[in-house]
Amino acid sequence: MDFKIFLSTLLYLTLNCVAALKKEDCEVCFTVVDKFSNTLTAAIKEDKKLIEDEFKEFCKNSKGKDNKFCYYLGGLETSATGILSEMSRPLQFNVPTDVICRKLKKLDGQICDLRYDKQIDFKTVDLKKLKVRDLKKILNDWEEDCEGCLEKTDYIRRITELMPKYVRDEL
């Protein structure tokens, strides 16, 4: 009988380790939950409602993917749904971030689909190998237009013209 308990425990632990979520798999969730958790005081962590109110306040200043994560959880006034309690309750009991994100992923798969945009190293990147969509994004991030650009080479030419203005050589 003891061997069966040992074997079932071992099987449970093995499956639990395999199912562990990695930061790369759900990077926005990990980052936002860690960042938010570090802002909480011990007094706030004692009350689930205070944690939720604090998260809503935290989300007011969020931008980009962090803001989208807040939207999915229900931390924004414009959020359509709210699964905020699924984050606040575990935070109240100091549950690890990977467990919180795994639980949130089960409730809403979009949460782990969020990814931060990759930063481009202009010193090493070959613009010719980037997609037109990425070239347009670079110009959009710089809040620049490319009037008359029809082909990839037009976008590359425009980015090359603007690089001295936006890309600084760091010493």
Layout of helices and strands:
Blueprint: H1 2-18, H2 27-39, H3 42-45, H4 48-60, H5 64-73, H6 85-92, H7 97-107, H8 132-141, H9 152-166
Signal peptide: 1-20
Function: Required during the maturation of the embryonic nervous system for maintenance of neuronal and cuticular connectivity. Essential for maintenance of dopaminergic neurons and dopamine levels.
Pfam families: ARMET_C (PF10208), ARMET_N (PF20145)
Explained architecture:
There is one protein chain. By secondary structure, the chain is mainly alpha-helical. The protein has 2 domains: 23-113, NK-Lysin, CATH 1.10.225; 127-166, Orthogonal Bundle (Transcription Termination Factor Rho, Rna-binding Domain, Chain A, Domain 1), CATH 1.10.720. It is built from 9 helices and no strands. The chain has helices at residues 2-18, 27-39, 42-45, 48-60, 64-73, 85-92, 97-107, 132-141, 152-166. Helix 2 (27-39) packs across helix 7 (97-107).
Topology order in helix (H) and strand (E) letters: HHHHHHHHH
CATH topology of the largest domain: NK-Lysin
Count of individual helical segments: 9
**Biggest pleated-sheet summary:** none
Strand content: under 5%
Which architecture of the largest domain does the CATH hierarchy give at level 2? Answer: Orthogonal Bundle
Principal-axes shape call: elongated
- The radius of gyration over CA amounts to 22 Å
Report the average pLDDT across residues: 85
- CATH homologous superfamily classification of the largest domain: Saposin-like
Function: Required during the maturation of the embryonic nervous system for maintenance of neuronal and cuticular connectivity. Essential for maintenance of dopaminergic neurons and dopamine levels.
Protein name: Mesencephalic astrocyte-derived neurotrophic factor homolog
InterPro entries: ARMET-like, ARMET_C, ARMET_N, SAP_dom_sf
Subcellular location: Secreted
